[in-house]
């Protein structure tokens, strides 16, 4: 996720426009006039070979004619001229170009390729082509053909649609909402959504980021950037194409359930991005997030002069998962003293239709002081008795006073004036109060705030440790799959599937493959001898769903019954599907569990996000019931639990009436194991366990299908190429022997290491902490440590070292690469009482080797000059050590790999 040179494009000190037209109705003319009207403060030049001036602005014939070097070149020229313009700009030293023009085409030999090649020669960044442009109010730059320039504010908008960006500007102009930046990215020839997420996540002027997405080009890059951004500020997305079908027909139930939009939904959830369904909801999000901070909880107090609208607000609040704030006896008594006897006496606080400004103020003061609510929603239905405008004015004055008195801890106050005129809207907006046309919109706005707080908490959760007893036979499992592929097969045989599941400690009913009737009788007799009953299923690589041809017979209890059923199954399959290859029948022990739940679990392949884990209610009507949830692997137990909880069938996993609860985490562990299997064996294309029977004793697979094929590499970089989110890199676990036969174990950091790190820090002196963090560190909060431990293993890596004898943590080394994987910045911290024993040297060598494996070219770091031990070690490792020109107390260290 590269922010390389983006500051020069989005906050340039100089701009040149190439291609402005003298024609009144043209894109070039509109862009020129917008730049001029916005009052850009930096140097500006106009380039046009045919006109000496346009709209009173002097023009030069080429970029070479400018008396300055433009940081940003805005291009509205015809497509065939663009590669040459970029080349000229690069030669002059421009940092990048905004290509508003369309028509560059795609593929080898296209203008698209020529433009990229020209930019790469000079390290230029490109925004566009085929876009509306950019609007950066903070630097008075409107390099777009939008109708309006937005006000300065704290929202950033990244849009794949120019029309959506223009619509947001128009809406914001009416609501008084400002933007830190609006970027229309068009065809994303270079700068993409992920790059801009990185940029605005680090921009101190941006409070929240809004996205309009049509498709994601690089899923792993997007996931890493979105997750990093969502940790520090709200990221809200609206995606078009919600009803679009998957890219290919699915051969399994899990494949059919994993529709394209459902996968996007799972990806947004995993990244911590708030998804909204349409532009109206996006506007509401912008209204809310642009004005107030998230509340500490989800208890909402509602103040209204209309009982009906208050009840509607409560209904919507409860439906969306919020909580109507309770009113304590003390608060009710206080409200009784300032309100007429006819007030509602509960939440919503209905102060009756004749309520005037003073009554609103009296009630609002009580609710603002009440610690049993987390936010207040003020509703007003206009009447002929009291002035709605006067009430709005009084409420905003009171809220402003409240915020002034409680700057740090002020709770959000939202408003909905039904049927309000523009003056009232301006009063509320001018006071920084989120306001909405209806109570429904207001409640949704509040719940967006709540959801953002929950997302931040989820991203900082410490998942439970995996059981040490789970050690899969990945090698054996891989041999099963590779042998099938070598045999030219696309599907595993039933016995192969059973062996595959056993390799990952997933229970499956006894399963045998019989090529003829008599072999089926023989296998069935073995099951009968153990007191079991038998089920027969047709065995065919061409019949996806066995029940479609009557290929399943249950409850067989004698060899004679098996003989007759097997003959009938084979005959029926040959008659109904004469073209199908029929290999015989599957003989299985029949599991009769009256109180077991039928579930479906599996893996599907998505063309954008790679492997997806699917969970839901199983059985033959699985697609009709459509009770499912999706997640991107890898999974830990907590993520697996969350996946299960997002389905309706999750309620049936709990105890009810005489049905015991399903064994704790039995199903979650199967999901985790499946995700690990997908990481170990990318040749698995689809995996379908249906049904998985779950009860108080555990979980057992009854039937499964596995599609295999040569791995289709999707994502660059290390880790499973089929995962949009990198898996835990177990291949980097090391046992190292240091001097004096000191043996240590080093592995990549995991989220559950947070308590370990807290304990480790007690063994680091304040002096060593200051050398590491460049400032005194009095305490380390949960949020701070959680952010250190929650790695995506894409841009950030950390190795944690343990003393093998004691099991105690003794050191940690980190590396954070830039988004184009050119260079990485390191940091290291050791237990203060164990320094000087070779631990630091070993960890530095490990992180250097890791950087080389990732293809990084440079490792760098900042070291305090007083940290002479670290500087000396860097020199011995080959780092170049130089004083920082801007910080006299710091040395820059750099190692070329």
From TrEMBL:
Keyword field: ATP-binding, Ligase, Nucleotide-binding, Transferase, Tricarboxylic acid cycle
Has UniProt tagged this entry with the keyword Cell membrane? no
PANTHER family recorded for this chain? 3-HYDROXYPROPIONATE--COA LIGASE [ADP-FORMING], ACETATE--COA LIGASE [ADP-FORMING]
Output the Gene Ontology terms for molecular function: acetate-CoA ligase (ADP-forming) activity; acyltransferase activity, transferring groups other than amino-acyl groups; ATP binding
| One BP term from GO | tricarboxylic acid cycle
Against CDD domains, the record matches this protein to: NAT_SF (cd04301)
Which family does the record claim for this protein?
A: In the N-terminal section; belongs to the acetate CoA ligase alpha subunit family.
- The protein in question is named GNAT family N-acetyltransferase
Q: Which SMART domains match?
A: CoA_binding
Question: By its UniProt entry, which SUPFAM superfamilies does this protein fall under?
Answer: Acyl-CoA N-acyltransferases (Nat), Glutathione synthetase ATP-binding domain-like, NAD(P)-binding Rossmann-fold domains, Succinyl-CoA synthetase domains
- Tell me where in this chain the N-acetyltransferase domain is found: 744-897
């Amino acid at each position: 996720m590269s922010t390389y040179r983006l500051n020069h494009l989005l906050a340039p000190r100089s701009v040149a426009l190439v291609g402005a037209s003298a024609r009144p109705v043209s894109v070039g003319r509109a862009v020129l006039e917008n730049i001029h009207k916005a009052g850009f403060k930096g140097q500006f030049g106009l380039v046009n070979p045919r006109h000496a001036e346009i709209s009173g602005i002097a023009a030069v014939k080429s970029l070479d004619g400018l008396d300055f070097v433009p940081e940003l070149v805005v291009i509205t020229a015809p497509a065939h001229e663009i590669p040459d313009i970029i080349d000229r700009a690069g030669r002059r030293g421009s940092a990048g170009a905004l290509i508003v023009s369309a028509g560059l085409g795609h593929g080898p030999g296209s203008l698209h390729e020529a433009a990229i090649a020209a930019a790469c020669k000079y390290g230029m960044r490109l925004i566009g082509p085929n876009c509306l442009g950019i609007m950066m109010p903070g630097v008075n730059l409107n390099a777009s053909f939008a109708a309006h320039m937005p006000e300065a504010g704290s929202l950033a908008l990244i849009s794949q649609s120019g029309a959506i960006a223009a619509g947001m500007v128009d809406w914001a102009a009416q609501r008084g909402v400002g933007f830190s930046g609006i970027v229309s990215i068009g065809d994303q020839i270079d700068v993409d959504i992920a790059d801009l997420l990185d940029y605005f996540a680090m921009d101190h002027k941006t409070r929240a980021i809004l996205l309009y997405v049509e498709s994601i080009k690089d899923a792993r890059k997007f996931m890493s950037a979105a997750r990093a951004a969502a940790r520090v500020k709200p990221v809200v997305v609206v995606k078009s194409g919600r009803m679009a079908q998957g890219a290919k027909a699915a051969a399994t139930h899990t494949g059919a359930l994993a529709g394209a939009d459902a996968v996007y939904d799972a990806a947004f959830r995993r990244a911590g991005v708030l998804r909204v369904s349409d532009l109206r909801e996006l506007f509401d999000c912008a209204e809310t997030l642009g004005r107030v901070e998230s509340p500490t909880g989800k208890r909402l107090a509602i103040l209204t002069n209309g009982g009906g609208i208050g009840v509607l607000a409560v209904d919507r609040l409860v439906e969306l998962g919020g909580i109507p704030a309770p009113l304590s006896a003390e608060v009710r008594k206080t409200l009784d003293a300032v309100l007429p006897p006819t007030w509602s006496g509960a939440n919503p606080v209905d102060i009756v239709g004749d309520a005037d400004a003073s009554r609103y103020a009296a009630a609002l003061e009580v609710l603002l002081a009440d610690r049993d609510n987390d936010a207040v929603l003020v509703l007003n239905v206009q009447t002929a008795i009291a002035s709605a405008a006067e009430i709005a004015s009084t409420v905003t004055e009171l809220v402003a006073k409240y915020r002034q008195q409680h700057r740090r801890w002020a709770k959000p106050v939202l408003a909905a004036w039904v049927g309000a005129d523009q003056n009232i809207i301006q009063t509320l907006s001018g006071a920084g109060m989120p306001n909405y046309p209806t109570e429904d919109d207001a409640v949704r706005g509040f719940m967006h705030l709540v959801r953002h707080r929950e997302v931040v908490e989820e991203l900082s959760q410490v998942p439970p440790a995996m059981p040490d007893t789970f050690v899969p036979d990945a090698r054996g499992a891989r041999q099963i799959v590779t042998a099938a592929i070598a045999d030219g097969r696309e599907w595993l045989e039933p016995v192969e599937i059973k062996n595959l599941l056993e390799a990952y400690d997933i229970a499956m009913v006894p399963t045998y493959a019989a090529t003829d009737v008599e072999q089926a009788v023989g296998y069935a007799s073995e099951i009968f001898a153990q007191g079991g009953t038998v089920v027969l299923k047709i065995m065919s690589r061409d019949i996806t769903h066995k029940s479609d041809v009557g290929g399943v017979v249950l409850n067989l209890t004698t060899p004679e019954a098996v003989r007759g059923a097997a003959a009938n199954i084979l005959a029926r399959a040959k008659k109904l599907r004469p073209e199908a290859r029929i290999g015989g029948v599957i003989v299985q022990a029949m599991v009769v569990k009256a109180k077991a739940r039928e579930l479906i679990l599996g893996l599907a392949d998505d063309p954008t996000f790679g492997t997806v884990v699917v969970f839901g209610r199983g059985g033959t009507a699985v697609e009709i019931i459509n009770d499912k949830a999706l997640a991107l692997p890898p999974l830990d137990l907590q993520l697996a639990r969350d996946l299960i909880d997002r389905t309706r069938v999750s309620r049936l996993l709990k105890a009810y009436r005489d049905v015991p609860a399903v064994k704790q985490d039995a199903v979650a562990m199967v999901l985790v194991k499946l995700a690990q299997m997908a990481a170990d064996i990318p040749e698995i294309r689809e995996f379908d366990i249906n049904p998985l029977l779950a009860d108080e004793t555990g979980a057992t697979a009854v039937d499964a299908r596995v599609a295999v094929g040569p791995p289709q590499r999707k994502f660059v970089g290390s880790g499973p190429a089929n995962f949009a989110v990198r898996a835990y890199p177990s291949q980097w676990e090391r046992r190292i022997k240091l001097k004096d036969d000191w043996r240590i174990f080093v592995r990549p950091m995991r989220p559950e290491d947070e308590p370990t790190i807290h304990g480790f820090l007690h063994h680091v002196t304040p002096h060593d902490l200051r050398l590491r963090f460049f400032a005194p560190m009095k305490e380390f909060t949960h949020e701070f440590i959680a952010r250190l431990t929650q790695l995506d293993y894409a841009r950030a890596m950390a190795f944690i070292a343990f003393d093998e004898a004691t099991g105690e943590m003794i050191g940690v080394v980190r590396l954070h690469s830039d988004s184009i994987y050119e260079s990485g910045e390191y940091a290291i911290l050791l237990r203060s009482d164990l320094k000087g024993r070779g631990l630091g040297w070993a960890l530095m060598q490990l992180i250097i080797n890791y950087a080389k494996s990732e293809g990084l070219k440079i490792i760098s770091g900042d070291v305090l000059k007083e940290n002479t031990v670290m500087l000396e070690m860097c020199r011995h490792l080959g780092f170049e050590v130089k004083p920082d020109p801007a910080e006299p107390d710091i040395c820059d260290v750099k190692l070329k790999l």
